[in-house]
Amino acid sequence: MVAPSSCSIIESMCSYLRGVLGLDVDRVEQVRRDLDRICADLTLVSSWKQDRISLLTRGPRFPLVPGGDAALLDAQGIHQLLRTLFVGVKHSENKRGISFESEMRAELERRNLKLIQRRYEFPEGLREVDAAVRAGTTLWLIEAHSMERPLDFEIGKPSVVIQRSERLAGKLDQVASIRETPFVEWIWTREERPWINSDVPRVLSASELMEMLTKQRNAPSD
Predict the structure, then answer these.
(1) Boundary (domain end) residue, out of 45, 66, 84
(2) Is the pTM of this model over 0.70?
(3) Considering only Cβ atoms within 10 Å of each terminal Cβ, which end of the chain, N or C, has fewer?
(4) Do both 114 and 46 map to the same domain?
(5) How far from 211 is each of 33, 59, 113, 216, CA to CA, in Å?
(6) 141 and 37 within one domain
(7) Which domain holds residue 14?
(8) Tens-digit pLDDT string for the chain (222 aa)
């Protein structure tokens, strides 16, 4: 049980930042500016917040529960709080996509896979892929596609799985010979279009792509 005053809680936080994490005075003051809002967000003070608590997501968990002359600090739930802290928080899809493309090219270079021209002129105009790599005798044109992985997908909600599959199918239409997502995906059909051959899918996680390109690069030439 702790004093319910936000001032008291904030002072305890600042003391921890200085004494345990070793932050200097200027850095602590920078953090202090947001502590009122952070405390308010982490305090269970309204029916609206109570309604957000879900057995399905196991969160959000509010560690400060006021009552009477004291507040309950739910320290036991800190680990769970951190795991569910960003449930429902949306990232900028555009910024996320740009970051993923940049990291994909950087990782290819770290693995000594040489990036080549990725902009091509066609009769219908200029086309661009996110990365192009020659591995062995194969030219890989890579379209890096970042897609959120919501909880409903994790638990297999049919409508979300169908929507995700349709989105990937649309990518196949958009970039017929390209593929990928930052997470492991299952291929929803054995039809020819989503597969390079019977063993190699066009939909690859980033790690699967790196592994396949490295193997092809190191494979002996015919």
Answers:
(1) 84
(2) no
(3) C
(4) no
(5) 46, 36, 11, 9
(6) no
(7) 6-84
(8) 777 777 888 888 899 899 998 999 999 999 998 988 888 888 888 888 888 887 776 677 888 888 878 888 888 878 877 776 666 666 677 777 888 889 989 999 999 988 888 776 666 677 778 888 888 888 888 888 777 777 777 778 889 889 888 888 877 776 664 333 333 456 777 788 888 888 788 888 888 888 888 888 887 766
